[in-house]
Amino acid sequence: MKQRQRIYYSAAQRAEIWDRWQRGESMSSIGRRFDRQSSSIFSVLSPSGGIRPAERRRSVRALTAAEREEISRGLVAGRSMRALAVQLGRAPSTISREIGRNGGRDAYRATVSDQAAWERGRRPKPCKLACQPALRRTVSAKLRRKWSPEKIAGWLRRSFPDEERHRVSHETIYKSLYIQARGVLKKELLEHLRAKRTIRRSRHASLKRDGLGRIKDAISISERPASVEDRAVPGHWEGDLISGARNSHVATLFERQSRYVILAKVANKETATVVSAQIRQAHKLPRELYRSLTWDRGKELADHRRFTLATDVDVYFCDPQSPWQRGTNENTNRLLRQYLPHGIDLSAFSQAQLDTIARQLNERPRKTLMYQTPAEKFAEGVATTR
Description:
Layout: H1 11-22, H2 27-33, H3 38-45, H4 65-76, H5 81-88, H6 92-100, H7 104-107, H8 110-120, H9 128-131, H10 133-144, H11 149-159, H12 170-178, E1 219-220, H13 226-229, E2 236-244, E3 248-255, E4 261-266, H14 271-283, E5 292-295, H15 304-311, E6 314-317, H16 327-336, H17 351-362, H18 374-384
Helix pairs in contact: 2-3, 4-8, 5-6, 11-12, 14-15
């Protein structure tokens, strides 16, 4: 079996990966940017628990590469260590240690010495929880009681206002949990956090914060007319996307009164693609049979205003995490999964094949319609609008 080739990222690529991760992008999205699988992005993020390592900087007190070049040239010229110290404005002991740890007078090389100093600077520095056993035990006990790191840090500040050694920031707690290389807090303590993640997500990943991810000018379902609720009038639709393997999707439409189904092939879940598909479907129906559309909070209909301008159909949005508000949609999706099961590539289905599936569903008797078919019930609605 051919061995998989190892993927290497340059320093610039790794920096871009971290930039995108901190902006809230998913690993799949970042992977597409580099034409890689999300697993290769995970390999970059996971060693530090999804927390970006601090950028390394040289101490202002450390010898610079230029100073090491001066030392190298001075040694070749036969100058003493004390003379070199005076020339560089450094203590003689600093020059002596620098030469001694890097091969002595005969083998000293500036470039090699500078790189060796950079590597030696990687030695691990113990964090506060590692140095304070009592504080570590307190934090562990509170985590087991399902206190969040922020609550623990706040409680410590209030309980020990004048004792710095008894206080720790919530960021230090998170880092000690997610960066297991620190070896401070046990990994099983992660199970007591509200979010069960193996790596830490960016605070920007929740698109609900600070207005991110909210659909602009969305009309709430609470403003939907009462005639929609009681299904007395035909022409009110519920819409959704069902997803399959390889990031494939199919747009679905269900008429509330008749349970009539329309399926639309879409290339992706971008709002421009989905809205255009919905406009095409709306133009196929008489105006009287397309009065409103109800959607969930998915960003695929973020450009709902373009849909309304093109069709004169109002769009209503459900409350977050309230699938029961689109009951027709949810129930029919379960029926639809008989034809489009989870885990298959939906992009393999042509529009003609989707139309065939929709027709089969529309010709199945429904108990809620007193065993009429959705096609028969929809035809009645068509007849009443003429």
